[in-house]
Design brief:
The structure holds two protein chains of two kinds. Chain A is built from twelve helices and twelve strands. By secondary structure, chain A is an alpha+beta fold. Chain A folds into two domains: about 180 residues, no CATH class; about 170 residues, no CATH class. In chain A, helix 2 packs across helix 10, helix 8 packs across helix 10 and helix 10 packs antiparallel against helix 11. The two termini of chain A are about 25 Å apart. Chain B is α/β, with parallel strands linked by helices. The chains are: A alpha+beta, B alpha/beta. Chains A and B meet through helix 1, helix 9, helix 10 and helix 12 of A and helix 2 and helix 3 of B.
């Protein structure tokens, strides 16, 4: 029997029981819609989080003092036996091949006063390479100047929000600002950068790292961040950094985390989350599949006569199997198609109603949902179709 | 088309056929050592009380059932041991079934019901259409072609069933109580149709309870308890 004919025959059987078929495929449709909607939300969150992290550029490597195997770093303030990362370490990394910029990083929280106002902000101790490593830009003035070895001048660059809070409309350039017990002169204001996972990136002040060490009474840097050329391999650059620091420190007493690794790990975690919510939707899909098994079993019983007839007219067992399997697959695939439009439609609606909730339906999910529903149809149809193909034609023809 | 049998060759040749059913603990010998030779173009009525094995014989000839012992040759080919696909092929090309309750597919039109064996055989659409149009014309169903079975009278339904059984031009037509569900006049019409097909050379085997219908056949086979008890040519033709 030709495929087109089998398909038509199966479709006619489905159409002959309109309501019943519709309800059955509705079961699959609801399941597919749930899977599509939930995974769309999961995928949206995935993309949102990743874009939050990649706004600083993806070709960044972070070096933290102390060798940790699990990630993270010892909490600041608690003394560790690890050898510290120094300003000299940071300087030495700037000259490695493929490294475009490297900045030391020290941070803390201090009171900032200027223009007669006071505000508690996050203070970053960095050097002139900071804007290049973190792809940030200036609004007014200039960033911290490049300095040789020795004590840098007491300059500060304000974040956009801190500038507004302290100076309002007044031009802050050249103004004096006190941070903790130290005095600084404002030489620039950063362009607004917005929020990162709910942390305000504009309520900040940037001062030279040496000054920050002094301010927070620290011996070593919290981290060093290195940016490398876009076309360079992160593994090679990380290896070069490792070799250089081992040469300087004698052994590996630091931890290198490439942005790539971190994003990969993060992406994996988010993928698992997406799959988990998808699996929740899968439960309703399972119920839909049971519906198909039920209706196909009823259909085989009702059409026992017809099956006997088909065999008498020269149908092979395989053709009978194919007809009922085809019916089940078409039923599920139609349900999948309906569920897909339902799920994607709901996702779009959600986007309109809740614009802040990131929702995204990738094509691969849509195609996957259709394939999945067809596979469900196939699996659900196997049992009833096999019992149809195994019927004794004489008994089948005699049945009323 | 299957090769035509030579004049001295039988269309159907059953020798030492046995068929036993098991119903719980009891054995039922539906057929016992049946030997039967049927030549091409014969018109045979198989008669006997219920449970005499006549339906089993028909199912066996139609390859819906298998013999436990014995051999069955159809047009000289031994079809006893064919596998189920090969048997399906034989049913498709050489055997036509007509049932008491018509067995039309209710959701298909008369034309689609007639087309069904051709569809199952995988014939190309254009070729199918020609054959169906011809069959509809032959059986006077042209104006009913697009009607569903529930919109047809009993006689029309059986005509659709006969058209379906003969659209592949089978060598043998097997009819199991073809008039059982019809009134006398419509039944008479259907029988005349079958006899006309037989007159064109198609072998016709009718299983029936009805002695009047049975008497019209040229050869009558009477069965009892799984055995053929008499096999006679009709007196009107024998003399």
């Amino acid at each position: 029997m030709r495929l087109a004919d089998s398909t038509r025959f199966a479709l006619q059987a489905i159409v002959s029981h309109r309501l019943r078929s519709f309800l059955t495929l509705l079961g699959i449709a609801v399941g597919i819609a749930a899977v599509i909607l939930l995974t769309s939300i999961g995928e949206g969150v995935h993309q949102y989080v990743l874009s939050e992290f990649t706004q600083f550029g993806t070709n960044v490597i972070a070096i933290a003092p102390g060798k940790v195997k699990t990630g993270g770093q010892p909490p600041s303030g608690i003394p560790t036996t690890a050898r510290l990362l120094t300003m000299e370490d940071a300087l030495s990394l700037k000259h490695l091949p493929n490294v475009t910029a490297a900045t030391p990083l020290v941070w803390g929280n201090s009171e900032v006063s200027g223009n007669g106002r006071l505000r508690r902000s996050t203070i970053y101790g960095v050097d002139a390479d900071f804007p290049r490593v973190f792809s940030s830009s200036l609004n007014v003035g200039s960033f911290l100047p490049r300095t040789g070895a020795g004590s840098p001048r007491a300059f500060v660059v304000l974040g956009a929000k801190l500038r507004n809070e302290l100076f309002g409309d007044v031009n802050p350039l050249g103004a004096r600002v006190r941070i903790g017990g130290l005095h600084f002169r404002v030489i620039g204001v950063m362009a607004p950068k917005g929020q990162f996972l709910g942390i305000d990136l504009d309520d900040t002040a940037f001062i030279p790292a040496e000054r920050a060490l002094e301010l927070y009474n620290r011996e070593g840097l919290v981290e060093i961040h290195v940016a490398y050329a876009e076309n360079a391999s992160s593994v090679k650059v990380a290896d070069a950094i490792k070799d250089r620091l081992i040469m300087r420190h004698g052994h590996e007493d630091f931890t290198i985390t490439t942005q790539e690794d971190m994003l990969k790990t993060l992406s994996n975690i988010l993928n698992i989350l997406t799959m988990a919510v998808g699996a929740l939707g899968g439960i309703s899909l399972l119920v839909g599949a049971v519906g198909i098994v039920t209706i196909m079993t009823i259909s085989v019983t009702e059409r026992t006569n017809e099956i006997g007839l088909l065999v008498a007219l020269g149908a092979r067992r395989r053709s009978v199997l194919g007809l009922f399997l085809g019916e089940s697959i078409i039923l599920a695939a139609l349900g999948g198609l309906m569920g897909l439009s339902l799920g994607a439609g709901l996702a779009q609606l959600l986007r309109l109603v809740l614009p802040r909730l990131p929702v995204h339906t990738p094509w691969s999910f849509a195609v996957g949902a259709l394939v999945m529903s067809a596979v469900i149809g196939l699996l659900a149809g196997v049992l009833p179709a096999r019992s149809a193909a195994r019927l004794d034609p004489i008994e089948a023809l005699r049945a009323e | 088309m299957p090769s035509l049998p030579s004049a001295n060759q039988d269309l159907i040749e059953l020798s030492q056929i046995n068929r036993t059913f098991y119903l719980g603990d009891s054995q039922v010998h539906a057929l016992r050592n049946v030997n039967l030779h049927i030549a091409s173009g014969e018109y045979i009525a198989v008669m006997g009380p219920s449970g005499s094995g006549k339906s089993t014989l028909l199912n066996l000839i139609g390859l819906l059932d298998r013999a436990d012992a014995g051999t069955y040759k159809l047009q000289g080919d031994d079809v006893t041991t064919l596998d189920s696909d090969a048997q399906a092929q034989v049913r498709s090309k050489r055997i036509g079934f007509i049932f008491q309750s018509f067995h039309l597919v209710p959701r298909l039109t008369a034309a689609a019901n007639i087309e069904l064996p051709l569809t199952l055989a995988g014939m190309p659409t254009a070729q199918r259409a020609t054959l169906v149009v011809q069959a509809l014309k032959d059986f006077g169903l042209t104006d009913r072609a697009q009607h569903k079975p529930n919109e047809l009278s009993g006689g029309q339904r059986q005509r659709v069933a006969i058209a379906r059984a003969t659209v592949q031009r089978p060598a043998v037509l097997l009819a199991d109580e073809p008039t059982g569900n019809l009134d006398r006049i419509t039944g008479e019409e259907v029988v005349r149709l079958l006899e006309a097909l037989n007159a064109q050379g198609m072998t016709l085997i009718v299983v029936t309870h009805d002695p009047v219908l049975g008497a019209r056949a040229r050869r009558q086979i009477k069965m009892e308890d799984g055995c053929i008890v008499s096999d006679s040519l009709s007196s009107s033709i024998a003399t």
